[in-house]
Amino acid sequence: MQPPTPKVLVVDDHRIITDTLVTILQMNGFDPSGTYSGREAIRTIDRLEPDIALCDINLADMSGVDVAIQIQERFPKCRILLLSGDSSSASALQRAGEEGLAFETVAKPIAPLALLNLLRRTSN
């Protein structure tokens, strides 16, 4: 029997990034859903029940770390990968660490093949 297709939630307020990642993931055996804001992600996670969440740290409407915390609280087995394009996210990650949470960060931009390899390792 084949393992279930990993469901991936992609959260980035840059539509082109979200849409591109969703397309890449669809073409490579994942079941992705994209959202364009932290609030939209939080509204949809209970319906999506993601196995993996790929979330930008610096969202326009809220911190991606706050999104990750809410996902982790509702779905403790969901693997969280935070995308960071700069070093300004250190304080948000430190705050999460103080709450006993540790999230893996991935530098933006990331090559599609590197991302796919990371997600394949994450979903095994």
Describe the structure.
The chain is of the alpha/beta class and 124 residues long. It contains five helices and five strands. The chain has helices at residues 15-26, 38-48, 64-74, 90-98, 112-123, and strands at residues 7-11, 31-35, 52-56, 79-84, 104-107. It has a five-stranded parallel β-sheet with strand order 2-1-3-4-5, sandwiched between helices. Strand 4, helix 4 (90-98) and strand 5 form a beta-alpha-beta unit. Helix 2 (38-48) runs parallel beside helix 3. The chain is globular. The two termini are 15 Å apart.
Q: What's the topology here?
A:
Elements: E1 7-11, H1 15-26, E2 31-35, H2 38-48, E3 52-56, H3 64-74, E4 79-84, H4 90-98, E5 104-107, H5 112-123
Helix pairs in contact: 2-3
H and E string: EHEHEHEHEH
Q: Please, how many helices?
A: 5
* Number of distinct beta strands: 5
What's the shape?
globular
- List the strand order in the largest sheet: 2-1-3-4-5
Report how far the terminal alpha carbons are from each other: 15 Å
The description of the largest β-sheet is: 5 strands, parallel
Helical residue percent band: 40-55%
Uncertain residue ranges: none
Q: Report the average pLDDT across residues.
A: 88
Strand composition percent: 15-25%
Rg for CA atoms: 13 Å
Q: Give the structural class.
A: alpha/beta
